[in-house]
Design brief:
It is a single chain. The protein has 372 residues and is α/β, with parallel strands linked by helices. The chain contains 15 helices and ten strands. It has an eight-stranded parallel beta sheet. A two-stranded antiparallel sheet has the order 9-10. α1 links the parallel β1 and β2. It is globular. The mean pLDDT is 96.
Amino acid sequence: MWQSEGKVFVVAEIGQNHQGSVDVAKRMIQTAKDCGADCVKFQRSTLEEKFTSAALARPYGGPNSWGQTYGQHKAFLEFTLDQYRELQRFASDAGVLFTASAMDMVSFRELEEQLRVPFIKIGSGDADNVPLLRYAATRTRVPLVVSTGMQSWEQIQRIGDMFGERNNVALLHCISAYPTPPEDTMLRLIPLYRDRFPHLTVGYSGHEMGVQLTIASVALGARIIERHFTLDKTWKGTDHRASLDPPEFTRMVQYIRTIEADLAKDTDCVEKLLANVLDASDYDGTELHTALKEMRVEDRKMLQSEKPCHSKLGKSLVYAKNCFAGHTLHEQDLAVKVSEPQGLSPWCYDSVVGRTVRRTVALDDPIFEQHF
């Protein structure tokens, strides 16, 4: 897969841009293959494992909604395991790899044990999901790709260190803003990832408009590229605008194949390389220069542009069962879910285990410091 010598591994993130239709998903798989993708990726969720009951019940109206509540909306877009098997067979016949992001522990096990995908993606929404990351780290035969959106550099180091010296794990630089402003792409962090994690493959999951900044990431050393893919940017759904349509995706792959063997030595080299390679319609020198501004590791923290995504899909520590006042918490008492409202960060997992709750709490309640 992505360890192929000299070749950048290109993933078309179909996600839930399929409009809840298996037929549309098949069209997207075939089109992505025709555009040059090495792999198509979906998103696998077990809704009750990913969301609390309150998060699923919240009203969700508007032009991008597929249901009256967020739970109804997500259920409409979720495929069954049998439908995943059907799509997996279709992708195999089309000659393109098939996988999915595991959005919770149950989904991770399904992808590993039942669908047996070639690798499993852990998205930015679970980059702080301590129990999921630790479990994934023990599955040494399962190649992993982990996106790092919404995380500080200190947290990114913790993620990378969980995987020790494994050679089948990749970290993707990612900014969880849809679309990402050029000044927030922080592309110059990619060489810093490569220096800090020499044993891991480093890639880029981009959400910016257009293709040139993704090509710049390859020049800076990204060996995996993931971009959201759509057949029509006007379709219903929040991801389509920051996705690439077939002509854009095709050009992106062509550009990548042109430059993938050339690692730029500095920013000037990147700018000159792209000026020579990109068509005029894809090149914007001012935008590129802005995106290539100098970066320090201390600059990587959750950005203002990432906060809407975190507010909507960031996960929290919640109670996995009803607990009475005076109960001392064990690992089996805790879960990590999208909650309404948000509670303590999942990075607090270890500090919460062993503490005693001072009040009675219920299943799916978010965990707050005042509970102790």
